[in-house]
Predict the structure.
Amino acid sequence: MCEPGYYCPAGSATMLECDAGSYCVAYALSAVSGTCTAGFICSGGAIRPDPSDEATEGGYICPTGYFCLAGATVESPCPDGTYNEKAGAYDEATFCLDCPEGKICDGLGLTSPSETCQAGMHCTGGEEEPCHVGYKCPEDVLPMMLCDAGTYQDDVEKWECKDCTEGYYCYYPDFAADDFAIITMTDCPSGYYCPDNTAHPNTYPCPPGTFYAGTRAISSSACTACTEGYYCPDYGMTVGTTYPCGDGFLCAAGSKTSKGSEKCPKNYYCVAGDAKECPAGTYTEVTGAIQESECRPCSPGSVCPDHSTDIQACNLGYYCPAGLSVYFATVASYSGVAGEPTICPAGFYCGSTGLS
């Protein structure tokens, strides 16, 4: 009688071993029982569709790294770029997994990735290629990593990004267009300074009261005080003569507002930061004058000397009409120049100061 693992067609002179890829489960079979189950190999003489021991059952479970279709006589290896870590795989699509990012699957029938992606390399689909410019590829890291703002990379096959050096900034070339690979440094713009690792061009503006017309500044010390007679109210200014000082004020170098550093002093009027002295024989009593008409003639009985804020009373022996600017202390020094004190005429006396 034919035993399990064999079959005996009519006229058989001997038992025939069950065909590879098939199984023979019972006694007295005239033909094989059926096809071996997917995920198993029936190598010949199998007594069941899902054998687990070749010596006793005539077959084995499909090994890791492979898949076994129904009726297969030999296991099929997972293809290059994939791996399979589970025994009993019954098809390629389900069990042969794509090599993960950061790993290499080089070869057939792999049970796990064959190696780790090396530093400076990008591994995808089980294949290795140099890391791109604008990216860094540390060892065993999944996708390529964009260089952070403030760094850049202009070489391939690198595992870290370069620091942006002082005088430059490193920012995404076209953020709106999803172009994020920073592959070069850019000159720090006018009005700003850029220390090491500066990301955005507008990170470090020159403060109000200063300006900078050049490029590639590395620190705030490059920012120049606003030009005398002008003020610089904004951050990041590139010209120191944009805003003239307000009328009635003086703007020292470095002024931040139109009111500058001080009001126009007495006996002066100030237009756009330019201080002009009141004409001879006139004066102002208050600060902040903005036009010549605010300079009043010196009062009768008084003298308004040039370049002085003091109003002096007319001296004994003289009388002083309005608008005098020069005073001589004695009659002997009288010169007769218009605008000077006048000697008391014959037939009169000038017995007190301040006469006009």
Confidence is low (pLDDT under 50) at residues 327-339. The longest strand covers residues 121-124. The longest helix spans residues 54-57. The two ends are 160 Å apart (CA to CA).
